[in-house]
Structures are given as C-alpha cells and as structure tokens.
Amino acid sequence: MAGQSGKVARRLNRPATSLGPARASLIAKGLLYAPEHGQIADTVPGMADFIDRQKN
Prior knowledge:
The chain is α+β, with helices and mostly antiparallel strands. The chain has one domain. It is built from 3 helices and 3 strands, in the order βααββα. Strands 1-3-2 form a 3-stranded antiparallel beta sheet. Strand 2 (32-33) and strand 3 (39-42) form a beta hairpin. The longest helix is centred in the middle third of the chain and has 9 residues, at 20-28. It is globular, with a radius of gyration of 11 Å.
C-alpha cells in the first residue's frame, strides 16, 4: 500500500497534523516507510489487504 498521508487523515476524519506521532511510531517499528515527502508505504507483504479487512 502506498498513499498520501493526507488521504489517510481524511479517511480517518482527522487533521493530517494529528497523525504525525502514529506515523513516526509505525516508521520506527518498520511497518511503514516514507518513499517521498507526504507519502507512506507499507513494508509488510499483504498489509494493505489486512488494513482493508479491518474496515468492517
């Protein structure tokens, strides 16, 4: 999964600035990385599918 951080914030109905600590924590744990400014991508194969299943 790769996407813009702002899209994630909108999906969660939160301001993008409020997600910084969670984003940093996930990057520190090696679950996400930032390929470009404002972008995020997961490092775990199948993570995007897992996240999509959690919506229900």
